[in-house]
């Protein structure tokens, strides 16, 4: 992670294995998901794309997103330590001169500890989202930048390991970002994302839909 993506500095408590499936999904069976152990809701913004695979739109921070799917075609999602009720797929900044595909593999390992995964597909264009004003102010002050938002290249990866490989402490190279994780359906994933990421998530799931059925 070349840049810190946390909006609020947070000293996390020890990670615990929690079963909050009845809290998140009260109508689901109790064995629906397993847990170990982005920002505040904002007005819905439209999603935009760039037709070039190589050049993201100007004014946006280059970023990768990782849609990690299980053999049963559920999607990995995790809650941020700084905002526990918001869930997201792994993502992170692309280092200078770094290939987006390499960045996706690196970020997945840094944030989840997962290395048993194969890249299956790549979104053919960049997707962008704008930061809400308060988030933009905090992040740009923290980064010393003036990004309008993030331009993301998304990758679909198939998880080939066991659930106990997931380690939200990551690979130890960066501070942990997540407190809990779950395999979710596409609709559950969108429902539990922060509002300003929902359009991008919906587009990502549309692009990767042939692999989710």
From TrEMBL:
Keywords: Hydrolase, Magnesium, Manganese, Metal-binding. Residues 59-206 form the Nudix hydrolase domain. The keyword Magnesium applies. GO terms for molecular function: metal ion binding; pyrophosphatase activity. Pfam families: NUDIX. The keyword Metal-binding applies. Its cofactor is Mn(2+). Signal peptide: none annotated. It comes from the Eukaryota. InterPro entries: Nudix_hydrolase (IPR020476), NUDIX_hydrolase-like_dom_sf (IPR015797), NUDIX_hydrolase_CS (IPR020084), NUDIX_hydrolase_dom (IPR000086), RppH (IPR022927). Belongs to the Nudix hydrolase family. This is Nudix hydrolase 26, chloroplastic. It comes from Castilleja foliolosa. The lineage of its organism: Eukaryota, Viridiplantae, Streptophyta, Embryophyta, Tracheophyta. The gene is NUDT26_1.
């Amino acid at each position: 992670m070349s840049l810190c993506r946390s909006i609020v500095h947070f000293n996390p408590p020890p990670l615990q294995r929690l079963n909050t499936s009845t809290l998140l999904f009260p109508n689901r069976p109790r064995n629906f998901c397993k847990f170990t152990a982005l920002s505040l809701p904002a007005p819905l913004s439209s999603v935009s794309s760039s037709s070039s695979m190589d050049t993201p739109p100007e004014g946006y921070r280059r970023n990768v997103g990782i849609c990690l799917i299980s053999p049963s075609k559920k999607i990995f999602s995790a809650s941020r330590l700084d905002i526990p009720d918001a869930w997201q797929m792994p993502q992170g900044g692309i280092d200078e001169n770094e290939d987006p595909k390499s960045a996706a593999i690196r970020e997945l390992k840094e944030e989840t500890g997962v290395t048993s995964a194969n890249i299956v597909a790549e979104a053919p264009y960049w997707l962008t989202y704008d930061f809400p004003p308060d988030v933009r102010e905090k992040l740009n002050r923290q980064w010393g930048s003036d990004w309008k938002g993030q331009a993301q290249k998304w990758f679909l990866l198939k998880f080939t390991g066991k659930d106990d490989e997931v380690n939200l402490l990551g690979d130890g190279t960066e501070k942990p970002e997540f407190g809990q994780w779950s395999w979710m359906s596409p609709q559950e994933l969108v429902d539990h994302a922060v509002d300003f990421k929902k359009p991008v998530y919906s587009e990502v799931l549309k692009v990767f839909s042939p692999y989710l059925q």
